[in-house]
Protein 1
Amino acid sequence: MTLRRKTFLYSILLTIIIGALFLGYILIMLPDLYVADTQEQFIKDIKKVHLTYIEEGNYKNITPLNYASTISIDFYKNEDRVTINSKAINYDVNIQTEEQRQMLANIRSYFNGLVNNDKKEFNYKIQDIFFALTDSFTHWTPESKQVFLNQFQSTGYIDTTNDEFPSEEINTDFFQIDDKTIIISSTARIGDEHYVSNIGFTNNTDRYIMTIAPQMQPSTRQILPVTIRSLPMVAAVLILVVLIGSLFFAQNIVRPIVNLSNQTEALKYKNIESDQSVDVTGTMEIEELAENLNRLYQTQQSQFRQLKQMGERQRIFLQSSSHQLKTPLAAALMLTDGMIHKIGKYKDTETYLLELKQQLRKMETLISTILSTNHLTETDEPVLVDIAELAQRLLEEREALFEQRQMEWQIEGAASRIVESTILTYILENLIDNAINHGKPQSTLTLRISDQIIQLENSNASIDEELLPYVFEPFVTGEDGGHGMGLYLVRYYATLIQADVNIENLDNSVLVTITFQN
C-alpha cells in the first residue's frame, strides 16, 4: 500500500474518530455548558449594571442584557424618599402618607437587619421585604393606592396570592463583591422552565441600593433540538476540513518523502565516487532527513576513498615485497646450485652455507614483517594507556643499547588516552629503535608528551634531504641499510589509531611528530 493511500485511509479513520467525539461533545456537553455560560453571563451582567449604577446614579451608560426589566431602587436612610431607575424610567418618589412612611420604615428595618445576618437568613429577609411591600400596598385604602400610583404616573396591581414559586424549588447562590455589596441569584424551576432573579444589594452610607434583573434561562430541552438540526452541517464541515487537511498533508509531507525515496533509489546506480546528494526540500523534518542522508553519503565516499587508498598501498606493498623477496631468493638459489654442482668457489660449502643462511634470514625477517601487518589489528582493543609510563618502559628496556651507542634519553610531559595499546607500542618501539640505530655518540633522544601530540627528537642527527620525502615509502633505506619497512609500518599503524606521523630535519636534530586526530 502506497504512502498516499495510507494517508487517505488514516484521514478517513481520523475523521470518523474526531467526528464522533465532536458530535458527542455537541450533544452531551454543549447544551449544559451553554446553560452554565448563560447563567455566568447573567451574574456578570447584574454585577456590571449594579456597580455602574452605584458609581453614576443613572442608566445613561448602562445596557443590561434584559433591557426592559432591569431596574434599580434607592431607599434613602434619612429621607422619606425612594428613587426608581431603569433604561426606560426615572422616578423620584416622595413619601407623603403615614402608611407609606411606615412601609418605608419596615423596609429600612429589614435592610438594616440584613447587614450582620448569614446568607440563609439574608435570603429569607429578601423574601420578607417583597412580601412586606406587596402586603402594604394591598391593604392600602383605594385613595392611598391611587395616590401612590399617581406618583408613578402608571396603573397596575401586585398579586400576593400567586403560589407558583414554592420555596423548596428555589435555588439561591450568593456572590460577595465587597464588604458592602452582595449579588444574589435565585433560580426557580417550573416544569422544564427556569426563571432567574438576580439581585444586587449595596449598603451605602446614605441609602440602600437594590438592582433587580429578572431573566429566563434557556434549558437543555430548548437547546437540544437546535443542536441536532445543526449536526449535518457540522459533520459536513468537519469532513471537508479533515479532507482538505489530509490533502495538504499529502502535498507537503508525502510528496517530499516520495521524492526523497526516488532520489535515493537513483543513487544506487551511480558510481560511489560521483556526486551523491539529494535535494534538501520540504518541512524541517524532511530537510533534516535529507541532510542526514547527504552526510551519510559523504561519510561513505570518504570511507571508500580511504579503503581505496589503503588497498592501493597494500597492492604496492605486496608488489614491493615480492620484488624485495626476489633478491635474497635468487641469491639463495644461486648459492645452492653452486654448492650442489661444486662450481668454482662454491666448492667451499662451509663458507657459503653461512651466506645462504643470511639470505634466508633476510627472507624470514621480511616475511615476518609482512605477516605482522594484519596480526596487530586483529588482536588489539582500545584501552586507557599512560603514554609516559609506556615510553619509560620501552626506553628502560633498551638501556643497554643506549649505553652501547653512548646515547642518553629523557621524557618531558605526561598524558593518558584511550588507544590500541599494542599498536601504539609497536609505533613507539620502531621510532625509538630507529633513533638508536641512526643515532650518533653523545646524542640525546627526547620524548615530549601532551594530550594530542607525541614528539621524538634525536639530537646530532639528520636525514638526507633527497630521501626525506620518501622515508614512509616501503623498502626505502638509507646508508645504514635495513629492510625499509619500519617507517612505512609506523605510518600505516598510525592511521589505524587516527593519528598522523611527520618527520622533519631541524638545525641539528631529527624531529618525529605523532598527532592524534581526536
Protein 2
Amino acid sequence: MILKKTLESICIRTIYPNTTTSVIVQVVHDDGALLPCAINAACAALVDAGIPLRHLAVAICCCVTDNNSIILDPSKQEEKKAKAFAYLVFPNTTVTVVPEKSLQVGSDPMAHGIITSVTHGAMSAILLHFLKMKVNA
C-alpha cells in the first residue's frame, strides 16, 4: 500500500484520465531495504515507460545500531540487529529539509537535518544521473 500511494503521488494522472497504469514489482532477492529498492525500481520503470511524473521519488533506508551509529542502506542482517530503522522517500528537488530548532534524540543533540540532507543529496544525484543515462541511451 505504501508503494502504491507513493507512485500515485508522483504520477500526473490528469493527462490521460481514462487509462490505467500497472506496476508489478517482483522480488528476486531481498538483502534489506526492500521498500526503498521497490520505490526506486518502480520510479525508474515509470520513467522508462514514458509516464508523466510530477517529480522522481528517491528512497533510501537508514538504521540506528546499538552503538548509536547510523547506517545508510543497511543489509537485511543489519536491519534485524538495528534498534530502529526508517525508510525515507524524497522528491527529486533541490530543496533540503532542515529543522528550524535543534533536534534531541534522548539527551544527545542531533545535527540539523544532516541525515536528511546527506540521503537526499546523494541519492537524488545518483538516481537522477542513472536515469538520465538510461533515457539518453
Protein 3
Amino acid sequence: MNGVTVSTDENGLPERIDLSSRALRLGGDQLATEILRQCHQAATISGARARQELAALGIDRRTLDAVGLPTLADIAEAEAVAGPAAMLDRPTMLDRIGIAR
C-alpha cells in the first residue's frame, strides 16, 4: 500500500483523494500515476458492472462490445496489475437512474 486512496464516481472521476504521510513522500509523477491508475480501475469495474446489468436486461453481447463497456476479463487484467478491487459493490450508473437488476 502506498498511502493513496481515491474515491470516484461511476465514471472513474475522482471525488475524493486521501493521502497518507507515506504518499506525500512520493514524487509528483508517481503520485499522479497512482491516482490515475485507481481512477481507471474504478471506471473499469463500474463499466463491467453496467455491462453485466445491461446483459441481464437482454442487451446482446455484440451491442455491449460495440458500446465499449469493459468485460470481467478487463477487471481480472486490472486486478493482476493492481491487486483485488474493493469497489465491486459500488452503485453503477444504472443503480443511480433506477434500472433494477
Protein 4
Amino acid sequence: MIIIDKPCLPAAHTIADPSLFARSSNTRLYYLKPGVFWEPAFRGHDGFYMPVYCFLVSRGNRNVLFDLGSHIHFDYIGDPSRFPPATELIIGPGVKAAAWPGYPINPDGSVLDSAAAGRSVRKI
C-alpha cells in the first residue's frame, strides 16, 4: 500500500484533516469487463488497469473512511461488526434492498445480518 501524506487536497485547517491512502496505483480489474464501458471489444483486452483510492478524513477524534468506487461485492465486503456500535454503516442506493435480509435469515444472503446489527445504517 502506498501512503500519501497530505496529498494535493485543499487545506482544511478548521474543518478536517484529510489523508489519502493509495491502495494501489496499478490494479488490474478483470471483473470489470471492457465491454461494459466501450464497444466494440478489443481482442486480448479482458480487463483494465485503474487506481484504487481510500480517503481518511478526521477532525478531532471523529473519522470517516471513504473507499472511492466502493461497491457491494461478496468476496471483499469486510466485517463492519468489528467496529464499535457507534460507527455508522453508510450505504449507497439500492444496497439495502439488494443485501438485506442477510445471512443467516436469508441463506443466500451476500452479507451477514450482524453487519448492521446494533448500529445506524444510513443511505446516501
